[in-house]
């Protein structure tokens, strides 16, 4: 069934992305996907108040990377380069759900990256059948933080190998890279304590010029919180998304545009399933994660 939806996803994202918990337990994941979602909740779908950076990796800007993760991306780049791998396309941030589980992908927090999806496609069998070979992977997995914890995990180690996919295996406070462990060493662009997040100052300077990015900015509506007693089209919209997530989530009233107790319970169930705090209110993060369910 999840295969049916694959054709609607751009080729760049043909990455079904397994849930670490549903994968072989003896594989090399230290941290469960649920835990990672919680650790990185502030960055989920850019809606939780976390600061972001757009570091240049492999010669192009990678948008939507959490500021604390920038050095890890530079380390990944250095490791792959030193192992002789030069990607043509690299995708990180993408607010979306995992097809199989409906839970938010770690790409939604910018802490997972897909390397050359076209050349490392999701097909069954040999995990090294793509362009990414064992020595490339070993170089990335060698990266440690200053406490000796491995920083990246590889989707190729899942029981259904997702060769293009690397994800961070630690939380935002565990990303002080031990550059002596990084094959290729510390690039000059890395190692600054905190990559500059997008600041108000930056947008002030650009406002003097013609604003080109205004259209793509989130509107204030997305910051509103819907709660009990709300009604109308916005409520109907989210009720439809809840029903798309679980057709049985609103058994009595369906998408009736009324934020009553049935909707509160459905939102709580959804938030629990996504590793979010079950408030029953639709805040920006919940709204964004719901939007990825369609
Ligand atoms: Zn991926």
Protein model, in words:
It is a single chain. Helices cover 24% and strands 7% of the residues. By secondary structure, it is an alpha+beta fold. The protein has two domains: 2-187, no CATH class; 220-291, PGBD-like superfamily/PGBD (Muramoyl-pentapeptide Carboxypeptidase, domain 1, Orthogonal Bundle), CATH 1.10.101. Strands 5-6-8-7 form a four-stranded antiparallel beta sheet, with helices on one face. Helix 2 runs antiparallel to helix 3. The longest helix is centred in the first third of the chain and has 13 residues, at 70-82. The two termini are 14 Å apart. 40% of the residues are buried. The model is unreliable at 1-14, 20-28 and 193-223 (pLDDT under 50). Residues 15, 17, 107, 112, 114, 165 line the site of zinc ion.
Keywords:
294 residues, binds zinc ion, two-stranded antiparallel ribbon, Muramoyl-pentapeptide Carboxypeptidase, domain 1, 2 domains, alpha+beta, 7 helices
Distance between the termini: 14 Å
* Helix share, percent: 10-25%
| Biggest beta-sheet profile | 4 strands, antiparallel
How big a fraction of the residues is strand? 5-15%
Attached small molecules: zinc ion
- Which H/E pattern describes the elements? HEEEEHEEHEEHHHH
Radius of gyration: 20 Å
Uncertain spans: 1-14, 20-28, 193-223
**How would you state the average pLDDT, rounded?**
78
- Which class of secondary structure composition applies to the elements? alpha+beta
Silhouette: elongated
Q: Strands of the largest sheet, in order across it?
A: 5-6-8-7
Domain count: the total is 2
By DSSP (H or I, 4+ residues per run), the number of helices equals: 7
Task: Please count the beta strands (DSSP E, at least 2 residues each).
Answer: 8
């Amino acid at each position: 069934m999840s295969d049916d939806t694959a054709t609607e996803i751009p080729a760049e994202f043909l990455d079904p992305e397994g849930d670490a918990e549903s994968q072989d337990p003896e594989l090399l994941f230290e941290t469960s996907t649920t835990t990672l979602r919680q650790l990185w909740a502030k960055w989920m779908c850019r809606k939780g108040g976390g600061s972001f950076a757009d570091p240049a990796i492999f010669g192009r800007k990678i948008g939507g990377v959490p500021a604390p993760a920038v050095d890890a991306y530079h380390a990944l780049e250095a490791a792959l380069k030193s192992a002789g791998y030069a990607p043509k396309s690299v995708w990180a941030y993408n607010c979306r759900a995992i097809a199989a589980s409906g839970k938010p992908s770690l790409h939604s927090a910018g802490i997972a990256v897909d390397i050359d999806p076209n050349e490392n496609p999701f097909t069954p069998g040999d995990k090294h059948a793509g362009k990414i070979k064992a020595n490339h992977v070993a170089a990335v997995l060698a990266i440690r933080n200053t406490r000796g914890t491995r920083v990246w995990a590889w989707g190729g180690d899942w029981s259904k190998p997702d060769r293009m996919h690397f994800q961070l295996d630690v939380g935002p406070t565990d990303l002080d890279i031990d550059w002596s462990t990084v094959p290729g060493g510390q690039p000059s662009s890395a190692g600054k304590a905190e990559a500059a997040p997008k600041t108000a100052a930056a947008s002030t300077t650009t406002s003097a010029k013609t604003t080109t990015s205004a259209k793509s900015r989130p509107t204030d509506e997305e910051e509103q919180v819907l709660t009990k007693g709300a009604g109308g089209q916005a409520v109907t919209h989210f009720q439809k998304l809840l029903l798309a997530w679980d057709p049985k989530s609103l058994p009595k009233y369906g998408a009736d545009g009324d934020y009553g107790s049935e909707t509160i319970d459905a939102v709580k169930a959804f938030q629990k399933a996504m590793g979010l705090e079950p408030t029953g209110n639709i805040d920006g993060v919940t709204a964004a994660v719901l939007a990825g369910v369609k």
